[in-house]
């Protein structure tokens, strides 16, 4: 499957600039352009970049790359999720104040 720079960057949790940097080292046969003149990467090229990015991320951080946490799509679920986060932050804040005294 052919992917754009943005799609691959989102999938790997890195910036588009990081993907562009790694594209420079790919052979031309693994890249191309779509009808909108966006740079595309073949599935083989994406695998090569993914191996490089994951290896560097694990090497520097010692952890696997993290997925971005997106809010739920449903508005009610978003509100519920945000309220839970707010309650957790408030609880943590009060615990920190209590332990400080």
From TrEMBL:
The keyword Metal-binding does not apply. It comes from the Bacteria. Keywords: Plasmid. Residues 4-26 form the Helix-turn-helix type domain. InterPro entries: HTH_11, WH-like_DNA-bd_sf. This is Putative plasmid replication protein B. It comes from Lactobacillus melliventris.
